[in-house]
Amino acid sequence: MFRFHILLRRKNKILIPESKSNVYYNNKNLALAMMKNVESLGFTFSKELLKKLSAIDKSELEAINKEMITCLKKKCGADKVYNPMYPNFPEQVIEASEAELFINAIIHYMSYGELMPVYKKDDRFPLIWDRNLIVLDIGTEDEVWKIFENLLSSKKSISEQDKNDIKTMIIEGGDKYKDHLPDEIPLKENIAFLCGTLKEYGKLDSTIGKYFKTATDVLRLITQMSDGDTSLSKNTRYKKMKRSDRRFYMNLLVGCKNLEEDMFRYKNKWIRIGEIIHPSEFKKQKYDKVRAAFNSIRSGKKPLFFAGKVQGYIQSGDIKRATKLLSKRPGDFARSLDKLLRETKNPSFIVNEFRNVADKISTNVLLDLRQHFIHRNDDKLRVVIPKGITSKAYTIDKQKKFVPEYICSDIAEICEEEILTRNREKEKMGNVYIDESFKKYIAPFSQRSASATSKTLERGSRIKLEDDIKILRGFIWWTNTLLTNTLADRVDLDLTASIFDDNWSYVSVVSWRNIKNDIMVMSGDITNGGDPDGSGVAEFLDVNLEKIKSYKEYAKYRYLVFTIHSFTKQKFSEIPNVRFGWMRRNNLGSGEIFEPKTVEVNMDVNANGVVAIPVIFDIKENEFIWCDLVSGQNIYMQNTLQNNIRGVVASCYATTNINKISLYDLIALNAKARGKLVKDRNKADIIFDNDTTKPITNISVNGAIENYKHEDETIPIITAYDTEYYLSEMM
Predict the structure, then answer these.
(1) Averaged pLDDT score across all residues of the chain
(2) What is the pTM of this model?
């Protein structure tokens, strides 16, 4: 049922297995009971899905229901038990005296988290919740394999969750994956991952040779097979190989161009690999070039390659010759463009040379360049998220040398025109409707270090909250590590909420040191996650937005930041179970502490750090801003917000000032070239909207206009969370 879980998690669609008989069953009551069960999790059925399920045999319905409930519970976080210190949170903590809270905390700390205060859990008033439920619809197996194709065709990095889905389809989908392998895989890391997975499960053959063009492509594959970082930004301990594997890699290297130059880019990695492959053992003439390249990198004498020549021209002030040389490698030219413009006295010459090679530059790079030069002379700091898996962000000063605005405009115009030219060659889109909210979503440009989450977003994306939401409730759940039962294996995580003003100056905080104030309250500081195979422990933290907005000094409350601190200093990647999420609540007095249908986002926390910043709330704009980063920290001190505040503020500032193209503009560039933008959703041939309601058709009945749901099921509705679509189809 792997396809079932992938489609339900990613698309909110149920894959109905083909019936083993042609018998029609009338099990509407059972289907209605299934629908009632999922409503408590925040979901419901479409009319079409309910009809389809009603016609299925009882035993098949039971199997579908079991898989569906398992997947939906995990999607909204209801697959875990949430045990806070105070079972009648938040009222119990709000009403408790400081003395009671202090004594409970001291006893808990002195017992290393073994002793907890004992309170009777009161009955709670049923949840009052009138929000729309998420509609589940019918899915097809073709949609599953389309996800597979789109992920492999992605022109930007994909997440670990994406990779796991690809691997699952290869492992459990038989040989069907062969029919869905794209002719070209643009992202080199994806080539390494695909081939590494095929090799691991004995499905690799010579047909994959077409995907390998450079020595670095081969290096990524070798790194993948050693469980390393295929972005090549981190060191890898390379594993020993069988002779058949060594020959396989040698054969791949034979077909690579500019072999020696490419290997020198990662000289130290190739030296270590050479010690494992033993290229000198392969005596045939066809391996001469490969053996010579290994000998060259071991000699330590680096020839003057392309990059060295370019750098030499730039250092000598001969920008014209540097430009001419770079034009032979358009990708390198694009990446050096800003530097050339800063150093030259004749920027028009560089612009003209760039115009001549723009058609040979990848769309990804053109999109980045266009955005960069549109905002090139802005006063804001430049935001950088490094390549790799550390999930960190930082800011650097803008280039000090000014580039004339007309030059920046020319570069952006060249990039846009080339993008439009390419888009005109794609399949026509017809009438295109884009919801205005897509202007607040960042196009998915880097999912490499993204956490596994119920909603996939790009960092810096802003999602509007309902204006009448009164309470934001953050939560974490975790267990201890998988090691032996010693104090060193105890995991103490702390959920913290801090508030900053417009300029990112600190205003207020609630954490383990102070679990309540007049606007925020925490469910108690638990310092022991318990058995790794047990039910775990949880902390909740409420922020009263309604109260904040009633304050006279409300203007100074701008950003609310949730952070998670590993007080016992294990990295989140070393802890087997860590989860974070938040809920929207409009009534403190109704519902359980954890109510699945109120969960906005639920995510696993596995970052390679000890301070995580999952999300920022913009109180003024009533929006949450997706962050999913770790900050710099000093682990020699207590791991608290106060001791990490500079790193937290830097990461948050970077996230709120990211300069990337929005989803709206990305879609609009496609629509401008191969369709027509329309403002009427009901006249669209393709809809980009988080509302997946089918379009409405206006029909005249006895002279009056009546609305009916559009019956054309072929009209696609693409949400902002369908990242694999944008990574493949829009770039």
Answers:
(1) 87
(2) 0.85
